[in-house]
Amino acid sequence: MPQTSATTIPAPVGGLNDRDAIADMPPTDAVIMENWWPEPGKVSVRRGSLTHADGITGNVETIWEYNPPDGVTQLYAAAGSGIYNITSSGTVGAPDVSGQTSARYQIVSATTAGGSFLYAFNGADKPLLFDGTTWTSIDGSSTPSITGIADTTRIVDGLVFKGRLYLVEKGSMSLWYLPPAQIGGAATAIDMGQIFQRGGHIVTAKTWTIDSGNGSDDHMVVISSNGEVAVYAGFDPSTLGNWSLIGVFYLGRPIGQRCAIKFGGDLLIICEDGVFPLGRGLLSASVDRRVALTDKIQNQIRLAANTYKSTFGWELCLASDYSALVLNVPGQTENIQYLQNTLTGSWAKFSGWDATCWCYSELGLFFGTNGKVMMAWTGSSDDAKPITADCLQAFGHFGTKVQTKYFTMVRPYIATGGNPSILYALNGDYLPAVPDGALTANAPDGMVWGSMVWGSMVWGGSLQQVQDWLTVGNIAKAAGLRLLVQNNFSPVEWSATDFVYTRGGLL
Asked: In terms of pTM, does the model score above 0.90?
């Protein structure tokens, strides 16, 4: 005789999964997770965004902060031919710097006995040196000056490593360094063409902290456009005994100029094969591809890399206050993001933030878009527009893979502080299907499965749990709950779902 059973499945806190077979995923993973944020105990509709600065001419392509040890943090954005002070919110005035060729800067901060400075390099204009008040174009005759490099406009990136400023020359194998504790002076070249065997050019240089056997030590990492990584130890390239090459590894071709960031003591690098932590990626002479941070969403990342790897916008940003690692991915019509919860390792896809660049500062998390700088992770709307979130939880077999089940009711546990518009569907047998009906900003009148929007209650104030049974009537061997939400300016959280079903035969 058929026997009715009931099962509770936690919300998909494991996040997005496109690596495993759709028929064999952990029950707490998701086939689709867009604009839901996986947390340790629940998933929530992502937070919103708000215009921080507008009136900017052009696409904002770089945001950075100037943060002196004894001063007030200043925030800047580069767009078109200008650099704007966006420390205060509102409509910007005239740019602090104008007449620039490119707005795609790499930023390096340096503190010396003379003060706190910031260098901005873009590989098209003379480097800009900022002392907290004045922007100075740097060449061989400026004050300070950089000599030895014939054309300073070719400097595209830089690094302060053990008290010395290193400079990356655009489209070359020359890595330059200045005298110690100086922001100018005579530059000396390190010819990386003798080190890298696959050709190409230097993309960037970063610091990597590893355990050298006698405690942690900083090493310098130089990355080539053809995927080679050279690791150096020491502090003085001009002295053989104080400078040594640890090794040269092949990791994979990096994507974009902003392909690497510090992640704790480690270094994360965006490659064609995903985002790799250097410490785990170079455990041996060969690279273990399974240690990529993006391993669980590798198919989507690889597709985006193959299609848009030459498009500007690839960037990593670590927002520690929100336990979030942001991977910005350019697209044809809109830039999207993949975010990892650094507490759990779970991934989600975000849309609606058409970001070209990111900056996490003590003032908040910001992204640039056309003519604006937005503050992210704030409120429950995108500049007064509701947020739409979509999730399909992994297909479950409910005890047996081949036996047919008749699903009669589900009970999702939803907490909200407002009146969201919610559509449900029970997707069966590994076939994703969008729920019937239309999301609306108006309060719905009834609660009907599938063809209508559920939500006859009107909620307000603090979060309240809603746990009503919904009739489904679906016959399938495997099933997963599809949840489509328009938050209507209110927080929405999903913690678990109850399923009631009756097992049938094999046919």
From this structure: yes
